[in-house]
Amino acid sequence: MCSSIPTIIPLPIPEQELKELVSKGKDWAIMHGVSMRTKEQFSEDTITFAPFVLFPSTMPKKDFQHAVELQTIFQELFHKVAYDREFLKMCLENIVQVDEFTAKLFEIYETTEKEGVSQSIGLGLFRCDYMLQCNDKRKDGSDDFYPFCNWKLIEINTIAAGFGWLGPASGLLHRYILQEMNQLDNIKNLPVNNALTGLCGGILEAWELYGNSSAVILILVEDITYNISDQKFHEYTLKEMNPSIRIIRRNLTQIYYNGELNEENELIIDNNIVGVVYFRTGYEPSQYPTENEWSARLLLERSKAIKCPNLQYHLAGTKKVQQELSKPGAIERFINDEKKVKLIRNVFVNIYGLEFDESGEEAVRLALEDPERYILKPQREGGGHNIYGKRIRQYIDKLKNTKERIAWILMEKIFPPIIKGYMIRPGTEHPPPITDMVSELGIFGVIMGDSTRIISNRQVGHMLRTKVESADEGGVAAGLGALDSPYLID
Ligand code: ADP
Ligand code: MG
Questions:
Q1: Percentage of the chain with pLDDT > 70?
Q2: Is 397 contained in some domain?
Q3: Which of 239, 326, 387, 485 is deepest in the core (most CB within 10 A)?
Q4: What is the DSSP letter of 186?
Q5: Contact predicate 274/264, CB 8 Å
Q6: C-alpha 154 to ligand 1 mean position (Å)
Q7: Is the predicted pLDDT of residue 142 greater than 60, yes or no?
Q8: Rounded distance, CA 467 to CA 421, Å?
Q9: Residue 142, exposed/middle/buried by CB under 10 A (0-12, 13-18, 19+)?
Q10: Does the residue 384 lie in any domain?
């Protein structure tokens, strides 16, 4: 495990100063939309600030830049994967035998392919998540470990990748905190982050391509939205960027009852023609409580509306596809440029499938032998589904003789450098303790295209999430994670 990375100022800071900064930070967060709805005592009438780290986390500029540069390469790769029917089928054909959720998605994919798709263009607002993997070996005993860290990809999110607002907003919060600390000269180390306008720009570009000035944008939402500010700021920004467009929010159940297709397969919801559907739901079994919601998804996929994401982008983001891509030679099927292949390959850790073959048996053996070195993942998104640490052993013991095991992948665990800091969460006592934390950087991008061409492919911004080092997952709303932003150092 790595030692700590440098903090922006020596810790601890004097208690009175800490108290004031925490209080100022919370107020700023609440009053600027760095906020969420609470799960406890949920009410549409209240929001609370989203957990945040008081100071931004230092990160070498060159590493940050490197992650930024990888984005369009990854997007090209996943676009091509998504439009390669044979490859998607090869990745998922066994899983659909044992995993009902993936099977249902795949069935809709097959149905619409067979019928002939009404909309060949897909819009992706993707987010690649990385952690720095540090190498234990340090040159001549120095504490300077940064040169020995490299990014490793945790996953690529192709559906409902959130924090397009909370990412940039965290940078603005930190900017305010640095101002209050009178560190004006250091504000320049917080990189510009235009994720929100970048992502909304992608949605608007798709809307224009749809080519009907009276068409609406549909934001497909959960029954209850906790991450409300993140979603709403997308809506407000879309409106600011083009005030004439009508934006509607609906859940899958409402689509079932109020949605239909006209003769041209245009999607009509409550008398509105929908040009673009932006999914902030639809990636988890619980979001399809009955067959009605599945019918709604089929209706959307059959329609001519441009989907963000379309079903093949969604499927390309499954953990299984990422595992298949980590096999030797797999990336080369899609990317000819050797340099790009190498860049992608360098950020992959080992990922194993759990098929009943030699490699699957090897994975079972590795997991049982040293579970702390791996993470066991099913084909799910949205947090809370993976198995960590010692529980992997029990789980594998239970799974190993069942056919269900093939729906899981085993991923090598990444051990990022530790940063010390203050994590501020609603309802916690004062003063906050100095906590050991680790960060996960997300890079956002927009891609649009079809099977023959990529129309747009750009990186648009970033987000940083930091969690308690000992926590398995760093969900900001649910878990032990907090909003953060990078502070770039040379
Ligand atoms: P989900 O789709 O549910 O977000 P992820 O693959 O992103 O699933 O995993 C959830 C969290 O688990 C990540 O945000 C990260 O904190 C942790 N995690 C996942 N994979 C790894 C890994 N290989 N090494 C270290 N931590 C990981
Ligand atoms: Mg994730």
A1: 96
A2: no
A3: 485
A4: G
A5: no
A6: 6
A7: no
A8: 11
A9: exposed
A10: no
Please determine, for residue 137, whether its predicted confidence score (pLDDT) is greater than 70: no
The count of domains in the chain is: 1
Q: Counting ligands in written order, which one lies closest to the CA of residue 473?
A: 1
Can you tell me whether residue 99 is helix, strand or coil? Answer: coil
Mean pLDDT of the chain: 95
Instruction: For residue range 375-385, list pLDDT tens digits in order.
Output: 999 999 999 99
The alpha carbon dihedral of 345, 346, 348, 352 has a sign of positive
Per DSSP (E only), the strands in 210-353 are 216-220, 247-250, 259-261, 267-269, 272-279, 306-308, 351-353
| Residue entry with tokens 């999110």 | 157
Residue 261 near residue 267, CB atoms below 8 Å: yes
pLDDT, residue 475, reads 81
Task: Give CA–CA dist 198/195, Å, rounded.
Answer: 5
Whether residue 208 is predicted with pLDDT greater than 80 in this model: the reply is yes
* pLDDT tens digit sequence for 258-270: 999 999 999 999 9
pLDDT-based confidence at 104, cuts 50/70/90?
Answer: very high
Residue 356 domain flag: no
Whether 34 is covered by a domain: the verdict is yes
Q: What pLDDT does 5 receive?
A: 86
Residue 4 buriedness (CB in 10 A; 0-12 / 13-18 / 19+): middle
Atom of ligand 1 lying closest to residue 438 CA: 16
Query: 469 alpha carbon to ligand 1 midpoint, in Å?
Result: 13
Dist CA 241 CA 189 (whole Å)? 28
Pocket mutation for ligand 1, best pick of 350, 375, 379, 392 (most atoms within 8 Å of C-beta): 375
Q: Name every residue whose Cβ is closer than 8 Å to that of residue 11 and which is 6 or more positions away in sequence.
A: 420, 421, 422, 434
DSSP H helices in 144-279: 166-180, 195-210, 228-241, 252-258
**Within 6 Å (CB) of ligand 1, which residues are found?**
129, 131, 154-155, 375, 377, 381-383, 385-386, 411, 413-414, 440, 473-474
pLDDT tens for each residue of 15-54: 999 999 999 999 999 999 999 998 888 899 999 999 999 9
Structure tokens at 262: 């006209």
Phi-psi region of 262 (alpha: psi -120 to 50; beta: other; left: phi over 0): beta
Q: DSSP code of 357?
A: S
Structural domain harbouring 149? 4-349+414-489
